[in-house]
Amino acid sequence: MSEESGLGGLFAKAQEMQSRLAQLQQELARRTVDGQAGGGMVRVVASGDLRIQEIRIEPQLLESGDMAMLQDLVAAAVNAALAEAQRMVQEEMQKAAGLAGLGGLTGT
Fold first, then answer.
1. Phi first, then psi: what are they for 76, rounded to 5°?
2. CATH code of the domain made up of 2-100
3. Distance (Å) of CA 80 to CA 30, 31, 32, 44, 91
4. CA nearest 108: which of 96, 92, 90?
5. Region 26-42: what's the mean pLDDT?
6. Which residue in 29, 38, 47, 39 sits closest to 84, CA to CA?
7. Are 85 and 33 spatial neighbours (Cβ–Cβ below 8 Å)?
8. pLDDT score for 1
9. What share of the chain has pLDDT > 90, as a percent?
10. Domain residue spans of the chain
11. Whether the predicted model's global pTM rises above the 0.85 cut
Protein backbone atom coordinates (compact mmCIF):
# COMPACT_ATOMS: atom_id res chain seq x y z
CA MET A 1 0.00 0.00 0.00
CA SER A 2 2.79 2.44 0.76
CA GLU A 3 4.10 1.89 -2.75
CA GLU A 4 0.72 2.93 -4.19
CA SER A 5 0.54 6.00 -1.96
CA GLY A 6 4.13 6.82 -2.91
CA LEU A 7 3.28 6.62 -6.60
CA GLY A 8 0.10 8.61 -6.04
CA GLY A 9 2.05 11.29 -4.21
CA LEU A 10 4.64 11.39 -6.96
CA PHE A 11 1.91 11.67 -9.57
CA ALA A 12 0.26 14.51 -7.64
CA LYS A 13 3.58 16.36 -7.38
CA ALA A 14 4.19 15.88 -11.10
CA GLN A 15 0.75 17.31 -11.89
CA GLU A 16 1.38 20.25 -9.58
CA MET A 17 4.74 20.95 -11.22
CA GLN A 18 3.16 20.72 -14.67
CA SER A 19 0.51 23.23 -13.59
CA ARG A 20 3.17 25.60 -12.19
CA LEU A 21 5.18 25.39 -15.41
CA ALA A 22 2.10 26.14 -17.52
CA GLN A 23 1.37 29.14 -15.29
CA LEU A 24 4.98 30.29 -15.61
CA GLN A 25 4.84 29.99 -19.40
CA GLN A 26 1.71 32.15 -19.45
CA GLU A 27 3.38 34.73 -17.23
CA LEU A 28 6.50 34.76 -19.41
CA ALA A 29 4.38 35.25 -22.53
CA ARG A 30 3.09 38.49 -20.98
CA ARG A 31 6.57 39.77 -20.12
CA THR A 32 8.65 41.64 -22.68
CA VAL A 33 12.28 42.49 -23.24
CA ASP A 34 14.03 44.89 -25.61
CA GLY A 35 16.81 44.43 -28.10
CA GLN A 36 18.47 47.18 -30.04
CA ALA A 37 21.04 47.88 -32.71
CA GLY A 38 22.65 50.89 -34.29
CA GLY A 39 22.90 52.77 -31.03
CA GLY A 40 19.16 52.43 -30.48
CA MET A 41 18.18 53.40 -34.02
CA VAL A 42 16.39 50.05 -34.28
CA ARG A 43 14.56 48.67 -31.24
CA VAL A 44 12.71 45.38 -31.02
CA VAL A 45 10.34 44.19 -28.29
CA ALA A 46 10.04 40.42 -27.81
CA SER A 47 7.87 38.46 -25.41
CA GLY A 48 8.82 35.58 -23.17
CA ASP A 49 7.21 33.16 -25.60
CA LEU A 50 9.83 34.29 -28.15
CA ARG A 51 7.50 36.33 -30.33
CA ILE A 52 8.34 39.72 -31.75
CA GLN A 53 5.82 42.26 -30.46
CA GLU A 54 7.13 45.47 -31.97
CA ILE A 55 9.87 46.87 -34.20
CA ARG A 56 10.72 50.58 -33.96
CA ILE A 57 12.96 52.25 -36.52
CA GLU A 58 14.12 55.83 -36.18
CA PRO A 59 12.98 57.91 -39.17
CA GLN A 60 16.51 59.18 -39.88
CA LEU A 61 17.57 55.62 -40.60
CA LEU A 62 14.89 55.30 -43.26
CA GLU A 63 15.91 58.61 -44.82
CA SER A 64 19.45 57.34 -45.38
CA GLY A 65 18.20 54.97 -48.07
CA ASP A 66 20.79 52.34 -47.12
CA MET A 67 18.58 49.25 -47.32
CA ALA A 68 21.40 46.77 -46.59
CA MET A 69 22.33 48.60 -43.39
CA LEU A 70 18.68 48.78 -42.31
CA GLN A 71 18.23 45.06 -42.89
CA ASP A 72 21.39 44.26 -40.91
CA LEU A 73 20.30 46.47 -38.01
CA VAL A 74 16.80 44.97 -37.90
CA ALA A 75 18.26 41.44 -37.91
CA ALA A 76 20.73 42.37 -35.16
CA ALA A 77 18.03 43.96 -33.00
CA VAL A 78 15.69 40.98 -33.46
CA ASN A 79 18.48 38.58 -32.52
CA ALA A 80 19.36 40.68 -29.47
CA ALA A 81 15.73 40.75 -28.31
CA LEU A 82 15.27 37.01 -28.80
CA ALA A 83 18.53 36.26 -26.97
CA GLU A 84 17.38 38.42 -24.05
CA ALA A 85 13.97 36.70 -24.02
CA GLN A 86 15.65 33.27 -24.01
CA ARG A 87 17.89 34.35 -21.13
CA MET A 88 14.85 35.53 -19.17
CA VAL A 89 12.99 32.27 -19.81
CA GLN A 90 16.02 30.17 -18.82
CA GLU A 91 16.48 32.12 -15.58
CA GLU A 92 12.82 31.76 -14.63
CA MET A 93 12.77 28.04 -15.46
CA GLN A 94 15.89 27.49 -13.35
CA LYS A 95 14.24 29.32 -10.45
CA ALA A 96 11.11 27.21 -10.83
CA ALA A 97 13.14 23.98 -10.98
CA GLY A 98 15.13 25.03 -7.92
CA LEU A 99 11.96 25.74 -5.96
CA ALA A 100 10.64 22.31 -6.90
CA GLY A 101 13.87 20.61 -5.85
CA LEU A 102 14.76 19.77 -9.44
CA GLY A 103 17.89 21.91 -9.75
CA GLY A 104 19.85 19.20 -11.57
CA LEU A 105 17.21 18.77 -14.27
CA THR A 106 17.57 22.14 -16.03
CA GLY A 107 20.39 21.03 -18.29
CA THR A 108 22.91 23.60 -17.06
1. -65, -40
2. 3.30.1310.10
3. 18, 16, 13, 8, 17
4. 90
5. 95
6. 47
7. yes
8. 44
9. 58
10. 2-100
11. no
